[in-house]
Amino acid sequence: MLLTIKTLPALRKLTRSQRLQQAEEFRSVLQNRVTFTGNYLRLHIKPNHSDFARLGLIVAKRIEHKAVRRNRIKRIVRETFRLQQQTISGLDCVIQLRNPVDTSTNYVSLRPEALMLLARAEGYLQKYAAITD
Predict the structure, then answer these.
(1) What is the mean pLDDT of each run of 10 residues along the chain (133 residues)?
(2) pTM for the whole thing?
(3) CATH architecture of the domain formed by 17-127
(4) Are 25 and 16 in contact (CB under 8 A)?
(5) Helix or strand or coil: residue 58?
């Protein structure tokens, strides 16, 4: 069978259990106060005591006015998270856009920044696991 984009969406999608959906889930992570900050993104994390990582995204309209740009940012961050979620299993993550992204660079700086923040979260997870063991 030939693999095409139409045959792969289920493989590339974050499942419902891998996403933060309720306001209370977001609030819980945001109140935990463990954050890592980059130029464009801020990562809030909280241990969730499960075998998988969960993601919530906050891309405010007041920061990025165009819906097309907000959706593109969310797609890039979601895909970066999906590729890294095995290394940060056991964390709830909320990634928040801090500043408008420079569109002249075609969002190139967004993926490395998201990777850097997720790597820092992985380091936190290793320290947290050492403390709780």
Answers:
(1) 49 84 96 94 94 96 96 95 92 96 86 96 86 71
(2) 0.86
(3) 2-Layer Sandwich (3.30)
(4) no
(5) strand
